[in-house]
Design a protein that fits this description.
Layout (H helix, E strand, L loop, with lengths): L9 E15 L5 E20 L24 E8 L1 H9 L8 E5 L6 H15 L4 E6 L9 H10 L1 H14 L5 E6 L1 H15 L3 H4 L2 E6 L5 H11 L6 E5 L4 H9 L14 H10 L1 E5 L13 H9 L14 E6 L4 E4 L7
Parallel strand pairs: 1-5, 4-5, 4-6, 6-7, 7-8, 8-9, 9-10
Antiparallel strand pairs: 1-2, 2-3, 10-11
Helix pairs in contact: 2-10, 3-5, 4-5, 5-7
């Protein structure tokens, strides 16, 4: 799309599968809220991304004003789809397979926030993958933590089925699964369901990133014991300064969250290697006030890691840190990245 000043905006498509149900808004419109749908539904959104877009940011349309494609993210088209049409669109021409990047949002997230965030992540990653969002029925309220956790658990079968569908649709492409915050809990429960169903064919193909995951640390290691090692180690982004996870820990009676674990602890590193998990401390990276939004930068970094080198870069089990001042990825106990 060309903006009024002649600059060219970028187009970005986001495929959405959701367990949210449609609700009536105060002005009588239908919109996806926090109602829960057993059947689920599918949408396809096309975005215009402004030419001056800043990485990791969403340039939101200003409420009450005419949207400006020169400076703001805009939805240029939104269409409902059935499951078959949705998967055909994800597949594309299907001749050589297609990489798929599946994003699962976290706690306290509305439908618009989730869709716009998925568009921003896909734009910044610039990996050419089909960008898919799984939107579960978060209440989008700070006070609704327990309701959100229940809504995430409610959505586990639907996410497991979606991952299976995307594995088929991708052909021989790669499948990235990125779960943020409470979406990480949902991701792990869905992977566990696939393992219990004997779907090793799917688990052997997924590459999983858990960003700031809101999961009890003991529960996480129990989940890993049942899921087992994957060909590409699960990457867990951690940050000891994450204030959102500190709140979650308080609500959980002081139980540590895996997303806030201390990767410098030798016992933690040994457990990560034993279970085939890659813990990456991202505390040195710039973030938001709650220190809970480093996902955007690391997701882009992960997507560009060569698939042909599964034992290197962001694909090796152990405990690591992303250093400041351009130091890159540093293994705990080493002075440089391997």
């Amino acid at each position: 799309m060309q903006t009024p000043d002649g600059a060219q905006s970028k187009e970005q498509r986001v495929f959405v599968a959701t367990t949210r149900g449609l609700m009536l808004t105060e002005d009588g419109r239908q919109a996806y809220g926090d109602a829960r749908s057993m059947a689920g539904s599918y949408m396809i959104y096309d975005f215009s991304v402004p030419p001056g877009h800043k990485a990791s940011e969403i340039e939101w349309p200003k409420e009450g004003k005419t949207p400006d494609p020169a400076t703001e993210f805009l939805v240029t088209k939104a269409q409902a789809a059935d499951k078959a049409g949705f998967l055909r669109a994800v597949r594309g021409d299907g001749r050589r397979g297609r990489d798929v990047s599946l994003f699962i949002h976290g706690y306290n997230t509305s439908m618009p926030e989730a869709v716009f965030r998925a568009a921003q992540i896909a734009t910044d990653a610039n990996a050419g993958a089909a960008s898919v969002l799984f939107a579960w029925p978060s209440s989008a309220k700070v006070t609704a933590y327990v309701a959100d956790r229940d809504a995430a658990d409610f959505s586990r079968p639907a996410l497991a089925n979606l991952i299976a569908d995307l594995e088929q649709a991708s052909g021989n492409g790669r499948i990235f699964v990125i779960g943020h915050s409470m979406g990480g809990r949902l991701t792990m429960e869905s992977l566990l369901q696939l393992r219990l169903q004997g779907r090793n064919d799917i688990l052997n193909r997924v590459e999983v990133v858990l960003a700031d995951p809101d999961i009890d640390v003991d529960l996480f290691w129990q989940q890993m014991a049942q899921i087992g090692k994957l060909p590409v180690p699960i990457t867990v982004m951690t940050a000891t300064d994450d204030k959102a996870l500190l709140v979650s820990q308080t609500l959980a009676g002081g139980r540590t969250r895996i997303g806030a674990i201390n990767v410098a602890d030798p016992a933690v590193k040994a457990r990560a290697e034993a279970y085939g998990v890659r813990l990456v401390d991202v505390s040195e990276m710039e973030t938001d006030m709650m220190a809970h939004g480093r996902l955007m930068q690391v997701a882009a970094l992960y997507d560009h890691t060569p698939a042909s080198r599964p034992g290197e870069g962001l694909r090796r089990a152990g405990a690591f840190m992303i250093g400041s001042f351009g130091q890159g990825i540093i293994e705990v106990g080493d002075s440089f990245a391997r």
